[in-house]
Amino acid sequence: MSTPHASPPSVDDIFRYRYQHGTNVGPIFMHGPWLDNNAFETDLNSTRELGEIKRSIETKGLDETRSDWESHWRTALTDDDLVWLRTVAKCNSIRLPVGFFTFGPVFCIGSPFEGEPSQVYNNCWNTVRHLLRKCYDHGIGVLIDFQTIPGRSQGRDRTGNETTVDACPSSSNWSLARDCVAFIVQEVTFHAMSEVIGVQISSDTDWKTCDLEKWYDEVLEIASSINPSLPMFISDGGDLSAALDLAMSKNQFPTRVGRSPIVVDTHRYYTAEKYRSMDPMSVIQQIPSELAELEARQKNVVAQGTAVDVYVGEYSCAMHPQSWSCAKASEYPSLMRTFGQAQGKQWASKACGSAFCGFKMHGLGGDAWKLEQQVDAGNISAPVWLALPQTRIQKLLQQAESQREHVRGGSLSHESSLLSSSECHYYELGWDTGFSDALNFFGAVSHGIIPGGGEGGDRIGALELWIRKRISRTNSLDKQLGRAWEKGLRKGVDDFYKIVRI
């Protein structure tokens, strides 16, 4: 077995594989200035957006309509918003939805937006790119969430129930959606958008319907041929186990050509029917068992020849009113805080990232869905490493370096009686790689590798896929030595985190 390549993590690597503490920012580029409190749930296929554009063109003309829409896009997420997200909420990522019309008139051909409505979007993608660059300058990564496939009318509300009758797109609409994803990946690659942490190619839909798995195969093949290092996110469609198995089948290695890593997106809400009979504390007690589907699928990358990580793409502090009715009103604040903190702790320990339901989103039905209110109340807080002052991080980095040799020696001494000499060698190589990787992620902001400055370090979030990335660069893979290397890498990462106490 050749030694896994162990060059330091790149800017792209750190943006994409660190733990993502983030938020959904709403349909900024999918709805114009007409956006109201019903849009979030009712305009699933953008039919209302189209109607509002046509109405505006009829009354104001194309040029003024385009100006109104462009003004909305430019001001929907301001520099002050980004500063608040980074410095107060401590977010290092956002989840940004886009539709096929976001990319301009050429992608609207053959759709209901073709013609004058599509001209409103002439400059939309350039505005998106400008926002992406601003996010980069603030050290905020962006998951581009491609949501709208023309001709598809299925969606799910925040309880996980279908909100409309499913209508599968035509073959031409599937092709258009494929071309949209290819365009995003090309743009990310050509313009070296390090801030793009991945592309989500489905959202809130059952991937078993409409032969979506076949479409996945086609899209993932194209994405891998353009940029095999860019993570692709797929929805679990309400069946996390099945989606994990699908992702693992795509993440197998070694392969003759590079393959885009697949991350599974899942949503966690506690307003569904099965929770309504529970009192708030009973709901909270469900949290520690969440994402148990990962137990048999992680921590054994080499032996399984594949890897998978989960991203909690939506969650909130909401419970059904029936649940709240079981508690006293005076208990609500403390229960809400316990609920939010329990979720944050669980996602940080099990997932590669999470995104709170909403920041500057309409139609969210109460403060429990809104990031600003939940952060201000102390119900949602960032993982401890994102709030550390840079002076503290510098001291911890020095402390880790000074203890490195001693800790490595202790780890090797413990393993030497369990491993052969060759296995010990690869265990040591893995340990050094893991310790260095954890150190480089943690110090990336402090060392100016990630822009924006401010408080906080970073922790490896998608560790399973990071190990896959590290080890899949080898030309040959002896599983026995590979397992020793993986064990060493995991121990090196853990030892670093014990030193810096995160």
UniProtKB/TrEMBL annotation:
A single GO molecular function term of this UniProt record: glucan endo-1,6-beta-glucosidase activity
Key words, A-Z: Glycosidase, Hydrolase
Matches recorded under InterPro entries: GH, Glycosyl_hydrolase_5
GO biological process: glucan catabolic process
A GO-annotated cellular component: extracellular region
Listed PANTHER family: GLUCAN 1,3-BETA-GLUCOSIDASE 3, GLUCAN ENDO-1,6-BETA-GLUCOSIDASE B
Family, per entry: Belongs to the glycosyl hydrolase 5 (cellulase A) family.
Protein name in UniProt: Glycoside hydrolase family 5 domain-containing protein
Organism field: Aspergillus terreus (strain NIH 2624 / FGSC A1156)
